[in-house]
Structure formats: C-alpha cells, structure tokens
Amino acid sequence: MKFETEIQNDTLIVRVQNTTFDIRGVKAFKRDIFLAIAESDFKNIVINMENVRMVDSTGLGGLLFAKRQATIKGGECYLVKPQQKIISLIKISKLGDVFKIIENEQDVGKSVSPVKRNKKSD
C-alpha cells in the first residue's frame, strides 16, 4: 500500500494512494502513524481517501487505530472524500459517530458532522 504523510500545524495528514485499504497495507499504515507520533507533535489525523475504492475489515481496523491515536492526543480523526460505499460500510459497522467526513484537507476543525445515519422511526 502506498501513502504519504505530512504534518501541517497540529495535524497529521495521510494521503492513501492505493485503491484498496486492506490487510496488505494496514501494518505499514500503523507503523507510519507510530513514527509520526514519535517524531512530531500533532493532535488531529486526516486520512485522505479520495483514491480508495475498497476498505475491508482490516482497513476499518486501521482507521479505528488512527481514531484512537487522535483521541489520545485530544484531537479528531477526519476522512477526506471517502466513496459512498465506504461511507455505507462505516454506517453498517455502527461507526457513523466515530469518524468525521470532510470534503478537503483544509476543512479540519471546521464545523463538520459525523457520518449521517438513517434514523429509524419507533
């Protein structure tokens, strides 16, 4: 899996280059986040998913790992432009309130809402 990382102000930005976010790349993804934590001080994590077309359960685990690291630092984990089917997977997995979806990397810290859920009427 190919991705690049960058620190901007108090934010770690991870740009995923591959179309699949799965077991083949999650180990490297976690390693790079650990390295970034050791080398820099940041609060938020932004994962740019514009190029990602598929996420499996291991990929979801990697995203949750990033969320935990941001929470430990008192920040948020943002997903940039995930495909609709990835948003659906997040909803089905009951993680709609975990990640904040944004349209571009510059939207970090702006008023964004968690993944919208379809409300059931009781």
Structure report:
There is one protein chain. The protein has 122 residues and is an alpha/beta fold. The protein has a single domain, classed as STAS domain (Transcription Regulator spoIIAA). It is built from three helices and seven strands. The strands form two sheets. A five-stranded mixed sheet has the order 1-2-4-6-7. Helix 1 runs parallel beside helix 2. The longest helix is centred in the N-terminal third of the chain and has 17 residues, at 23-39. It is globular, with a radius of gyration of 14 Å. The N and C termini lie far apart (44 Å).
Q: Walk across the major sheet and give the strand order.
A: 1-2-4-6-7
Question: In CATH, what is the class?
Answer: Alpha Beta
Kindly report the name of the CATH homologous superfamily: STAS domain
Shape summary: globular
Number of strand elements: 7
Catalogue the unreliable spans: 116-122
Range of helix content: 25-40%
Structural class: alpha/beta
Which strand-content bin applies to the residues? 15-25%
Rg over C-alpha atoms, rounded to the nearest angstrom: 14 Å
The average pLDDT is 84
> Main sheet, how many strands, which sense, barrel?
5 strands, mixed
Instruction: Give the distance, in angstroms, between the N- and C-terminal Cα atoms.
Output: 44 Å
Succession of helices and strands = EEEHEEHEHE
Count of separate DSSP helical elements:
3
CATH architecture: 2-Layer Sandwich
Question: How many individual domains?
Answer: 1
What is the third-level CATH name, the topology? Transcription Regulator spoIIAA
